[in-house]
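Slide 14.
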Amino acid sequence: MSEQMPDIPFKSSILPKLLEEDTRIRFRCHTGISCFNACCKRADVTLAPYDIIRLKRRLGMSSTDFLAKHTVPFEMDADGLMGVKLKTDESGACLLLDGDKGCGVYTDRPTVCRYYPLGLLALHPKGATEDQQHYSMIVEPHCKGHEEDRELSIAEYRAEQGVQEYDDVNREWYQLLLKKRSAGPTVGRPPIASLQLFFLACYDIDRFRRFVLSDGFKGTYALDAEVYAMLERDDVALLRFGFRLLRQVLFGERTIDEQPAAWDKRAKERAPVWEARLEAEKRHWQEQQEARMREETTGKGEGA
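Slide 15: predicted structure.
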């Protein structure tokens, strides 16, 4: 069995048909098509962390102001892990839509918009050392792009839409969500401070920078001055650092060196939670394996 990446963009527990990069699809969207802008007028766009960096730069505002003006938060799981969606008007239209001209931030549009009509599915099969990336097709009644006379592979479509850069930066975020989901919804619920750190590190990058450059943070983590200088000027480097920090805070992985006394204290306080999460992950995978074996046994019985 495999884990499906949550909210990218599917919420159903039913796994859709998986497509590969060499799968050929028929699709084209352009200004002359009759449904142009229809998807933007009924927008439901979950933002990944790199989307926010690109959009806040494009609009010339801080991440804090961008989140307040252009997004709405939502809970991604029962533990209160937060995600953000693009805000829409009362009719459901994206606020970044520029009338009949189309997307007002097209060259910096979010990952979900770039992939459409494909869905990105990150899976982690049991026993695999790395996540696997697959795709699925989204077919909506209003979309006429599927009727266009153009065929290309998913790899060609991804290159055309410029999604590789987005996937590369967001990949560790996807992995965090998968790891969190595998622990189950109730075991080792993160404390409020950890949930707040998740929001800062993943979405509000400018506030997260102030936190990382604070004296309190520097007194806890053992980082070189050159590293702090890089984190002060580079949003993407800071985002990647945030993902590493979250693996340490949420799952007890020692990804960033702490001052000796700080690590010993944290390890002692969090050891029961980290151990519970590890046991939950083991139990989750075992249940999946047993379910798969039952399905295979049932299938053999029906075919006899």
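Speaker note: Confidence is low (pLDDT under 50) at residues 1-14.
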